[in-house]
Amino acid sequence: MATMKNESLKPMETMTNMPNKGAWTAEEDRKLAEVIAIHGARRWKTVAAKAALNRCGKSCRLRWLNYLRPNIKRGNISDQEEDLILRLHKLLGNRWSLIAGRLPGRTDNEIKNYWNSHLSKKIKQKGKQTGVSAKEDHRVEK
DNA sequence: AACAGTCTCAACCGCATGGAG
DNA sequence: ACTCCATGCGGTTGAGACTGT
C-alpha cells in the first residue's frame, strides 16, 4: 500500500526542511535498510540521521518493525493464527506487542489492525448473541 | 459510469517507561 | 532523588481501495 501512494508525495513537503510525513518511498526504504544493515536496528535517532531521510527516529523504527524487518509475514492471517489471537486477546487484553510476540512474523500493528477491522466485529456479534460486550470481554488492568 | 458509503492498513501522535548522567 | 532523552506501546487518523446502488 505504501508504495502505491509514493508518487503522490506533496511538493510542499519536499521543498521545505519539514520532516517528511506520509507514505515511505522505495528509495527511503532502501536507504533505511542500508543504514540499519550497517548500524543495527537501535539508536533510532542516529539511524534517522545517518539515513538523511528527514524522518524522525520514531518513524524509522516503525517502518522497520512493521514493513522492512526480515521474516515478516504479510497478508492472510490463517485460521490458527486468528484463533491464537482471540485466545491471547482474551488472556492479555489489548497488549498487541505481547500478542505479536507469540505470532512469528506478525507485527503488533498488523494484529491491532486485524483486530479492529475483523475480530472486534466478530466479538460484538457474538456478544449480542450472548449478552457480553466486546469491551467488557477484554478489559485488563495495566 | 458515477457517486456514496465502507473497509483496510500504513503511518502518526501522545503518553509511559527505563536507563544514563 | 531527579532530570533528560530515547524508545516502545496503544489509540487514532486519513488516504486509497473496494463494494453497493
UniProtKB/TrEMBL annotation:
Domain HTH myb-type: 20-68, 69-123
Top-level taxon of the source organism: Eukaryota
Localization: Nucleus
Keyword Nucleus on entry: yes
Major localization listed first in the record, in broad terms: nucleus
Annotated Myb-like domain residues: 20-68, 69-119
Segments of this protein annotated with the region Disordered: 1-20, 122-142
Keywords of this entry: DNA-binding, Nucleus
Pfam families recorded: Myb_DNA-binding
Protein name: Uncharacterized protein
Taxonomic source organism: Salix suchowensis
Lineage of the species this protein comes from: Eukaryota, Viridiplantae, Streptophyta, Embryophyta, Tracheophyta
